Amino acid sequence: MPGPRALLVLLAAAAFLASRAVADPPASERSALLAFLTATPHERRLGWNASTPACTWVGVTCDNANTTVVELRLPGVGLVGAIPPATLGRLTNLRVLSLRSNRILGPVPDDLLRLPGLKSLFLQQNRLSGAIPQGIEGLAGLERLVLSDNNLSGPIPFALNNLTALRVLRLDGNGLSGPIPSISIPGLGVFNVSDNNLNGSIPKSLSGFPADSFAGNQRLCGAPLPPCPFFPPTPAPGMSPGGGGPVPGSSGKKRKLSGAAIAGIVVGAVVAGLLLLLAIVLCAASRRRRRSGAREGPKAATAAASASAAAGAGAARGQPPAAGGDGGGGGMTSSSKEDLGGGASGSAAAVAAAAAGGAAGEQSRLVFVGKGAAGYSFDLEDLLRASAEVLGKGSVGTSYKAVLEEGTTVVVKRLKDVAVARREFDAHMDALGKVEHRNVLPVRAYYFSKDEKLLVYDYLPNGSLSAMLHGSRGSGRTPMDWEARMRSALCAARGLAHLHTAHNLVHGNVKASNVLLRPDADAAALSDFSLHPLFAPSSTRAGGYRAPEVVDTRRLSFKSDVYSLGVLLLELLTGKSPAQASLEGDGTLDLPRWVQSVVREEWTAEVFDVELVRLGASAEEEMVALLQVAMACVATVPDARPDAPDVVRMIEEIGGGHGARTTTEESEGVRGTSEEERSRSGGTPPTAPTP
């Protein structure tokens, strides 16, 4: 017979068990689990039964009070097919989901992206396909994301940066491609993207992880892997990709030559010997002809004069001189011989290029433009030997940070889809090289060949306005304050006004990623200006910054530039990028329309960036005034938009001391000094400037 105390303990335990037996998750969660299991074929019998409490089902874990499902673990139970919609997404309090080692097909389901409290998601060793969805950023509290050993493809989304609580990220064993985004999450302790198809340089923020985290990506380079060399894929004729740096992904092991390779070498040596013998015979025959010609005297002189006259007549008709002969140099100069690697003795490549017209030497040169290029003293081979780091891919090409052996750092932009000929390209670069202004980043040099077009710029280590404004939001970074935003707005407007008034150039691609920051806060610079005439017409360039009237990107105007500047001002005010804004709602809302809709409802305060509000920005009047300027710039009718110099004046009047000019010359360059410039600023300039 138990004592009274023991009896009380037994009664309490019984009451506790009874309460747990009675408590059960809501009917909606039970039905969601049953719907998931019913619609998903599975090989193992799980024994889920509607007549038993859901918290007792295999793989289901509830909270302490048995009132909601917090974990669902079904590893290796033979699940086959896609996760059915409107099932697991209804488990609103789910913290852990593990469906690893099954045969789940299809894309990462949107259903799972509707679980705001999810902490751990384990989907490795399945057959998931498609891209990692951008909506993954909605799982803000996610700490462990494991998608290894699936069939995922496409790029790694930059949106992963918004998962600021992430501790484990494993994406290895998929088919992901493109560069690795600059993921900078302070608490990230495990990171693995090995065995994919990634390329480019590893971001510095991830270089501290071991090399095994990046192995199996043949075109990936940079610490902790070997450094990235900068090699254009197809050098100009006669050029070697000097430097001999390692090609990313190449093996350092010595390989034995096959029998076929040895035979090929032997045959090549025999052929080379025969050619050498033939050359000696030809030289001897040439000497005999010269001796006989010397004996003929007047006849030879007459023949030479006739040949010279014929060559002159051919040149007058636009025909190239005949190749070959002792006197026919084919236009080759001493400098072009050096560029082709022929030197004093010449080479087969140099002779072939000379016979083709002698233009290859020019194509092999790095051409410097503008006064600012005087400080540089490197050539193309120095550039080819430089180690490179991918800075980003834009609408016109990929930008690299190139560190030369001498220590100089420049930015090299590899242009894609250039549609103009060499002469037009040269003339345009010469015009762009004449631009000198503290708020514009000019081209310093360029390279043109059939297969490669490169531009060289100064390197500004402070990064872009876009990275400063949007990078790693919510991860404890210092937000961009109001004064810094006003200075950036003023710098962008001044740089644009200078292009319009002083050089009659349309920028064509004004956006936050093309506003580069300098240590001097008043000297942020517009980059990538006036490149649109080099490309075929496109409707995709400039993205959410493009004016509504722009259909042909080769027919941009000053007014379309002002529209883009207005979108940039709205971006500074709202903290939203046009790309993000266009994805909201039904996918048709762009940033200007969104702002207009909010202001129309008299909720103007809702427009401004929450980071500014959190900083306690006291310049509300200035913010509202800049909003009015921005709305004028994004007017639908082009003629209703102000000119760029007027935008500068309005911003200066708002900001007061946010950025004073330093010289009278700069002031005149921004405002324009003549009626001719003022009238030009309202019209449409030619599609390509006349140098």
Question: Which key phrases capture this entry?
Answer:
3 domains, Protein kinase domain-containing protein, seven-stranded parallel sheet, disordered C terminus, Phosphorylase Kinase, domain 1, transmembrane, 691 residues, Transferase(Phosphotransferase), domain 1, nucleotide-binding, alpha/beta, At_inactive_RLKs, seven-stranded mixed sheet, Leucine-rich repeat, LRR (right-handed beta-alpha superhelix)
Write the layout of secondary structure elements.
Layout (H helix, E strand, L loop, with lengths): L3 H19 L4 H13 L20 E3 L6 E5 L6 E2 L14 E3 L4 E4 L13 E3 L4 E4 L13 E3 L4 E4 L13 E3 L4 E4 L11 E3 L4 E5 L17 E3 L37 H38 L1 H19 L17 H6 L8 H8 L4 H4 L3 E2 L11 H6 L1 E7 L3 E7 L5 E7 L6 H12 L9 E6 L4 E6 L6 H6 L11 H21 L12 E2 L8 E2 L31 H17 L3 H5 L8 H10 L9 H5 L5 H14 L10 H12 L8 H8 L3 H7 L10
Parallel strand pairs: 2-4, 3-5, 4-6, 5-7, 6-8, 7-9, 8-10, 9-11, 10-12, 11-13, 13-14
Antiparallel strand pairs: 1-2, 15-19, 16-17, 17-18, 18-20, 19-20, 21-22
Helix pairs in contact: 11-12, 11-17, 12-16, 16-17
Total count of strands: 22
CATH homologous superfamily of the largest domain, by name?
Transferase(Phosphotransferase) domain 1
What do the pLDDT scores average to? Answer: 76
Largest sheet: 7 strands, mixed
Structural class, please?
alpha/beta
The CATH architecture of the largest domain can be named as Orthogonal Bundle
Q: Would you tell me which CATH topology of the largest domain applies?
A: Transferase(Phosphotransferase), domain 1
The figure for the number of domains is: 3
List the total number of helices: 19
At the first level of CATH, what is the class of the largest domain? Mainly Alpha
Q: Evaluate the radius of gyration.
A: 34 Å
Kindly report the spatial arrangement of strands forming the biggest sheet: 1-2-4-6-8-10-12
Q: What portion of residues is helical? A: 25-40%
| 3D shape | flat
